Amino acid sequence: xxxxxxxxxxxxxxxxxxxxxxxxxxxxxxxxxxxxxxxxxxxxxxxxxxxxxxxxxxxxxxxxxxxxxxxxxxxxxxxxxxxxxxx
Length: 87
Fold this sequence. Notes:
single chain, alpha+beta, 4 strands
């Protein structure tokens, strides 16, 4: 009985995001001497420019150096950062 209440509580907190059109970009960067690879979602149909990627990365990792970025695909259940374009 307790399990059922727990499941109901978890399902109440689930939200569904609207489907968005955009590009998933894998970014390799150096921050504080560490090499980091992250995936970011840019909500626009074309490939983002290098300056757009650098600006978005610097919001999360200040003073980082972007080494490389490329388009990728989203795998189910994979974590990624969503970039806001209303700056």
